[in-house]
Amino acid sequence: MSTLSERVLGAPAGAYVDREVDIAFAHDGTGVLALEALRAMGVERLPYPERLRLIFDHIVPANTGTTATLQAELRRYARSSGIGFSDAGGGICHQVMSEGVVRPGMVVVGADSHTCTLGAFGAFATGMGATDMAAVWASGATWFRVPETIAVNLAGRLSCAAEPKDLALAYVAKLGMEGATYRALEFVGDGAAGISMDGRLTLSNMAVETGAKAGIFYADAATVRYLADYGLAAASQTPEDCRYERTVEIDLADIVPLVAVPHRVDTVREAEEVAGTHLDQVFVGTCTNGRYEDLVRFARTVRGRKVAVRTLVVPASRAVLARAIATGVLADIVEAGCMVAPPGCGPCLGAHAGVLGEGEVCLSTANRNFRNRMGVGGEIYLSSVATAAASAIAGVIAVPKVA
Amino acid sequence: MQGVGPAVCLGSDIDTDVIIAGRYLRTKDRSVWAEHAFEDLDPALAGRLRGAVIVAGRNMGCGSSREQAVVALREAGVVGVVAPSFARIFFRNAVNVGLPVIEAAVPCTDGARVAFDLDAGWVEVDGERYPARPLSEKMVAILRAGGLVPYWRSCR
């Protein structure tokens, strides 16, 4: 009996396998180096361009002449090579891939550490570096070590004030920043069914913060319904009675609003304990929490009110932005005094558009709060969207009210 | 595959943002990454890397998949990186750019003489020998070729 990683990769844990990939993507940051490596390899023609995507999301639109020139070269290559291309403004690679591209059972690699996000569909999805990606461009395949698996067994339902991000912070804190290094996580148990696809993407997204190679949900009725909306047929996956390295038990009813405090993602406190912490900026977005459901949740709190601190909202994709416009959610956010930036990674990695100054404090819905990540001397707290919304209104870290 | 050099000791959970900050990524000039390696940890550290063996704590290279992190270390002249555990993308990236990575738990004092032999599977610190975890066959072949690009060229 096998784990989902073993089933998808076709070999037992510990084995090394060479596998064709179904989808491989890179972004404007890693794509530049991948192209350089590909040229150094002497590869002129790509055998499987239809499996490949280049998605501009990290610094969009370009902030300097140097960035623009690097992006222009990569853009030209995408167009001439036949690689599927999503230009600046299309959205974050993981989100774009979640909008009707990745399906259950696929092998997916991305030149970005948060590629594990796509495990939410019951795919084996993992991050790699640029040179590895160049070899995938050149051959359509790569090697894997089939990971051992840690089960995260979810029981019950989240209470009103808690959301999937709080659960993500809870499991990261429980496992620690290297608690799952080289392993896959499988989110199982009766509690998994009650979590929406947007919520599952948030949970799978943060698997890498525990060192995990993948963070996987079994495809179920919710997955099938979600993909059907994109015109894709998919089947559910049934868990087998497999051997997990260990099982982490989480009762969803125990989850309360949480905050990861500087400078470690596994240093997590109840929002209550850090309430009142001074803030200079609130940032809502990223591959963790920039989805439509997140914007709805944010708007629900700020509607008809004014934020008391500089607040930046970055939709994860053009589709998310368009839907938020169509439903009036975006207007609520703008009227509350928030800035809205083009779809992409925003200031998450401290490269542009919303970086922090020396000593500034940001509450962010992202996944990393490493020292100096969003700007030298800046401090990052990580929270759910509901906590970010309550805090934006209060101007200091605040506990979200039960809806 | 062997190497020797003075130790540069680092702590645990050294993330790739610390190795090379996001603000330096938008270039293809590798010397920029080498020059600014570990800048936010200790601006003087980059100057001590040439010929050195980095001895880090657990979970070395966690975080982003940025390959600039391993390229920065290689370009700065790091001979190898020893740690009891590595983040998997960093580990694979290091092998792919021809930077030896050695999974071993060893004590560290700055400047101690560190030698390693990946084929024989050991690390020595000031003459004291410790076992290192062997790499997979494929990783050894890639490292021996000098990285994935030369490995690829040699296989075609």
Strand line-up across the major sheet of chain B? 4-3-2-1-5-6-7
| CA distance, first residue to last residue of chain B | 23 Å
What about the largest sheet of chain A?
7 strands, mixed
- How many domains make up the coordinates of chain B? 1
CATH architecture of chain B: Alpha-Beta Barrel
Tell me how many strands of chain B there are. 7
CATH superfamily of chain B: Aconitase, domain 4
Q: Roughly what is the average pLDDT of chain A, rounded to an integer?
A: 97
Describe, in plain words, how this protein is organized in 3D.
The complex is a heterodimer of chains A (403) and B (156). Chain A is an alpha/beta fold and 403 residues long. Chain A has helices at residues 4-9, 28-41, 65-81, 93-98, 130-139, 164-175, 197-205, 221-228, 271-274, 286-289, 292-302, 318-326, 329-335, 385-394; strands at residues 16-20, 23-27, 52-55, 84-86, 107-110, 124-127, 141-145, 149-155, 184-188, 214-217, 246-251, 258-260, 268-270, 281-284, 310-313, 339-340, 361-364, 379-383. Chain A has a seven-stranded mixed sheet, sandwiched between helices. In chain A, strands 4-3-2-5-6 form a five-stranded parallel sheet. The longest helix of chain A has 17 residues, at 65-81. The model of chain A has no long low-confidence stretch (mean pLDDT 97). Chain B has one domain (2-155): Alpha-Beta Barrel (Aconitase, domain 4). Chain B has a seven-stranded mixed sheet. The longest helix of chain B is centred in the middle third of the chain and has 9 residues, at 88-96. Chain A binds chain B through residues 16, 29-30, 32-33, 36-37, 40-42, 59, 64, 66-67, 70, 111-113, 127-132, 134-135, 138, 143, 145, 177-178, 181-182, 211, 213, 264, 349-351, 368, 370-373, 376, and chain B through 13, 15, 17-18, 21-23, 25-28, 40, 58-59, 62-68, 70, 85-89, 92-93, 96-97, 136-138, 147-149, 152-153, 156.
